[in-house]
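To illustrate the input format used throughout this study, we show a single complete record. The first block contains the structure-token representation of the backbone; no residue identities are included at this stage. The design step must infer an amino acid for every position from geometry alone.
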């Protein structure tokens, strides 16, 4: 299988974003985003730093706010509302997962929809379902962009999405439907999964099980999007698809690392800048 590398999309997109940021600065607008991290796992902290480095390269102001593990739902919601009210802040993110004592849904709903860079506010998910998306969950959008990069005509194709989370599976299925694919969503209760995946022209996998998808589960010529991020005891990352087992097949496959992840990060800033540009036009 041919590798669908994120850099083929991210490099020109970053160059475009830098120009758009400079154009906004020329209008007196300094793009600014805020990321909240309630002390939790190392992966979330590392990801927050990755975003900070990209923000610096693009010329975006990046405020990283680290809160104690004991922070309550009410305290986090209040901190978010303060940023909602700040006209100099254009985008807000909260690193997930949150500690178990914090009400995740209440936190998501506290973010102003127009500043919701994760695209998880119920209003934004509703716009996506309606077919008029505004802020879109970035990982799902990244998967779609990589499918498009393969050159496949999505319309009329059999697309299978394994996983039904609000972050990936559900929004990705809606994005594929909007491109006129015939979409099947599979999950832990799905029976005869292999028979379903073998018929897929487009196979998207987000279940968090390393090397779960094997060669006999994949159709020749399919586009396979591996959205899994799994770490072994040595900290080595792998996806949900057995990359080496699929190497002899025809088709396209995103590597892990180097596929969905890097593009997801870049798309956060694309949505941030687009939201600012749109608001300037509306004014």
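Output of the design step:
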């Amino acid at each position: 299988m041919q590798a669908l590398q994120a850099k083929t999309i991210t490099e020109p997109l970053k160059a475009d974003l830098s120009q758009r940021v400079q154009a906004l600065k020329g209008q007196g607008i300094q793009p600014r985003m805020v990321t909240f991290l309630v002390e939790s796992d190392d992966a979330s902290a590392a990801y927050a730093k990755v975003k900070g480095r990209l923000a610096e390269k693009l010329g975006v102001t990046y405020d990283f706010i680290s809160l104690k593990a004991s922070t309550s739902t009410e305290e986090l919601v209040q901190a978010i509302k303060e940023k909602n009210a700040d006209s100099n802040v254009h985008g807000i993110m909260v690193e997930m997962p949150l500690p178990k004592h914090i009400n995740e849904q209440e936190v998501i709903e506290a973010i102003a929809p127009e500043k919701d860079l994760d695209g998880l506010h119920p209003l934004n998910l509703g716009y996506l379902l309606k077919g008029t998306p505004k802020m879109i969950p970035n990982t799902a959008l990244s998967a779609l962009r990589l499918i498009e990069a393969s050159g496949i005509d999505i319309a009329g194709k059999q697309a299978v999405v394994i996983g039904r989370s609000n972050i990936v599976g559900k929004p990705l299925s809606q994005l594929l439907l909007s491109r006129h694919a015939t979409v099947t969503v599979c999950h832990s209760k799905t029976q005869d999964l292999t028979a379903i995946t073998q018929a897929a022209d487009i196979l998207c996998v987000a279940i968090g099980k390393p090397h779960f998808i094997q060669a006999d589960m994949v159709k020749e010529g399919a586009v396979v999007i591996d959205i899994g991020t799994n770490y072994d005891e040595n900290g080595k990352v792998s996806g949900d698809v057995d990359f080496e087992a699929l190497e002899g097949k025809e088709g396209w496959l995103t590597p892990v690392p180097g596929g969905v992840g890097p593009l997801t990060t870049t798309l956060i800033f694309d949505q941030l800048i687009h939201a600012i540009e749109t608001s300037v036009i509306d004014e």
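Structural context for interpreting the output: The CA atoms of residues 5 and 259 lie 5 Å apart. The chain has two domains: 29-112, 138-261.
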